[in-house]
């Protein structure tokens, strides 16, 4: 079967494959830098692991320098159709200087900005509130000690400023996503004070209003983490309310909820109250394990909701996974392409037919169509998408991924 016959098969259902391909081409995915080096970053002075974030595995080839990370990213982008973005964390600064977190400046990131310009990609940013001695208690912006709070406040303020400068330099709004590890291992007595402190810190941090064409604030909730099993200060309810009150983006990380919750189901509810959404597409296995995303039901449902609810225009799609047991570059390529494949499938669904059946309470037809559609030749449309950019699929892709991995396996 060829693309032409697949095109005809979809057209038979009233689905325009060309429109789907064109749409897919225009959706940037913000690829996370931290898959390339197991969330270590490039700080010289500080930087310890922590915050409940755990990359496991010791596959060879971890990027040890910004140059290595950029080379790995260039390879990954070269295997992924479309033009995407890079999501940087503050601890990935590229400088000989050794600023502490409360001393970082735009200048420490200019090599990334120059590179992004060169690549024609946009950048997103994150303050790093973990992997630092002042975060060892898993308390930062909600710490009872004012001095510690002030230290992290300064880090947050500087991150916003850097994000705005990045956005201005690249002519594309840089999302600055705030996630703090704050929480308690055992049942706290005074949750209220901790949340009041977090809110006050965020208010201070976000007090300066910055140009939304340059930077956008986002806040990310979490259910629990290693070491903060009993209570996370920045819970979903906390940040949902905060984002609504303050007009920030709400970041939904797919690993940050109870394992049986359907994150796709949340989009339409949240979208009624916040203007813009940030996604951290991830795959939790039993906990927030950040496995590489598969083309599985959770991702397919997420993509279908984005398309069906017409939310692509106000959702930033970011990825958040890290696996050190496999080729790190392959992980990026597989995960990012899976997000695109899910979007493509969603764009190829006969949503009008399905919505009409649903509105007529004809749930039999709805079920028949969704199940019959599983046999449609989605892969031929995907292959066409890749072929138009001369990108390999299948065995040819595996050869390319292996070749690159061999070239970095000798890194110490
Ligand atoms: C942690 C959050 C957060 C981080 C990154 C590195 O649980 O998901 O988004 O993974 O900031
Ligand atoms: Zn996340």
The gross shape turns out to be: globular
Q: Radius of gyration in whole Å, from Cα?
A: 22 Å
- Give the full name of the CATH homologous superfamily: Divalent-metal-dependent TIM barrel enzymes
SSE order, one letter for each helix or strand: HHEHEHEHEEHEEHEHEEEHEHHHHH
Number of strands: 12
Tally of DSSP helical segments: 14
Q: Share of helix among residues?
A: 40-55%
Number of domains: 1
CATH topology: TIM Barrel
Small-molecule binders: L-rhamnitol, zinc ion
Distance between the termini: 46 Å
Order of strands across the main sheet: 3-2-1-12-9-8-6-4
The largest pleated sheet is described as:
8 strands, parallel
Q: Which structural class do the helices and strands define?
A: alpha/beta
Low-confidence stretches: none
The CATH top-level class label = Alpha Beta
Name the CATH architecture: Alpha-Beta Barrel
Q: β content, as a range?
A: 5-15%
- Mean residue pLDDT: 97
Quick overview of this protein structure:
The chain is an alpha/beta fold and 412 residues long. It has helices at residues 3-11, 17-25, 66-78, 110-119, 146-170, 191-205, 236-246, 263-270, 297-308, 328-347, 351-359, 363-373, 378-387, 394-408; strands spanning 29-32, 85-89, 122-126, 174-178, 183-184, 215-220, 231-232, 249-253, 277-281, 283-285, 287-291, 315-319.
Which short descriptors sum up this protein?
8-stranded parallel β-sheet; 12 strands; 412 residues; TIM Barrel; two-stranded antiparallel sheet; binds L-rhamnitol; 43% helix; globular; alpha/beta; binds zinc ion
């Amino acid at each position: 079967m060829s693309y032409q016959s697949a095109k005809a098969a979809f057209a038979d259902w009233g689905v325009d494959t060309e429109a789907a391909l064109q749409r897919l081409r225009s959706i940037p995915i913000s690829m996370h830098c931290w898959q390339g080096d197991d969330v270590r970053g490039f700080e010289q002075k500080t930087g310890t692991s922590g915050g409940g974030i755990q990359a496991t595995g010791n596959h060879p080839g971890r990027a040890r320098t910004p140059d290595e990370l950029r080379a790995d990213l260039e390879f990954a982008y070269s295997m992924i159709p479309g033009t995407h973005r890079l999501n940087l964390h503050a601890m990935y600064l590229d400088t000989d200087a050794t600023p502490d977190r409360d001393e970082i400046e735009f200048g420490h990131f200019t090599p990334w900005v120059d590179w992004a310009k060169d690549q024609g990609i946009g950048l997103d940013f994150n303050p790093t509130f973990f992997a630092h001695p002042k975060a060892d208690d898993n308390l930062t912006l909600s710490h009872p000690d004012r001095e510690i709070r002030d230290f992290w406040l300064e880090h947050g303020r500087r991150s916003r400023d850097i994000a705005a400068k990045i956005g201005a330099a690249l002519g594309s709004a840089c999302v600055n996503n705030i996630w703090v590890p704050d929480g308690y291992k055992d049942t706290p007595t005074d949750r209220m004070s901790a949340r009041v402190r977090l809110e006050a810190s965020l208010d201070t941090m976000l007090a300066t209003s910055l140009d939304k064409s340059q930077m956008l604030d986002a806040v990310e909730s979490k259910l629990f983490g290693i070491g903060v099993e009993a209570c996370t200060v920045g819970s979903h309810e906390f940040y949902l309310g905060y984002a609504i009150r303050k007009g920030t983006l709400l970041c939904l990380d797919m690993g940050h909820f109870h394992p049986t919750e359907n994150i796709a189901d949340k989009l339409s509810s949240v979208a009624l109250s916040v203007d813009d959404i940030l996604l951290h597409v991830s795959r939790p296995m039993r906990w927030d394990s950040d496995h590489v995303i598969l083309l599985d039901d959770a991702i397919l449902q997420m993509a279908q909701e984005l398309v069906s609810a017409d939310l692509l225009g106000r959702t930033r799609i970011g990825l958040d996974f890290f696996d050190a047991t496999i080729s790190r570059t392959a992980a990026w390529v597989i995960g990012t392409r899976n997000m695109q494949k899910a979007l493509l499938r969603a764009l190829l669904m006969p949503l009008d037919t399905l919505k009409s059946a649903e509105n007529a309470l004809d749930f039999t037809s709805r079920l028949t169509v969704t199940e019959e559609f599983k046999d449609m030749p989605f892969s031929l449309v995907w292959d066409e998408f890749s072929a138009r950019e001369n990108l390999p699929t299948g065995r040819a892709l595996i050869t390319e991924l292996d070749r690159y991995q061999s070239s970095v396996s000798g890194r110490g």
